[in-house]
Amino acid sequence: MKTKVSLLALLCILFVMSGCSRIIRGDGKVETINVPVEEYDELSVACPTGKIHYAQAEGAAALSITTDRNVYDMLEVYVSDKTLVIKLKDAYKEKFIWPSEFTVRASSEKMKEISLAGKAEINLDGPYTAEELEISVAGSGTINLNDRIEVEKLSTSLAGSSTINGKDLDVGTLECEVAGSGTYQLGGAAKKVSYEVAGKGRVKAYDLKAEDVSCEVAGFGIFNVYASNNLSVEAAGFIKISYKGSPALSTEGIVMARKAD
Question: β-strand 142-145 against 75-80: which pairing, if any?
Answer without folding.
Answer: unpaired
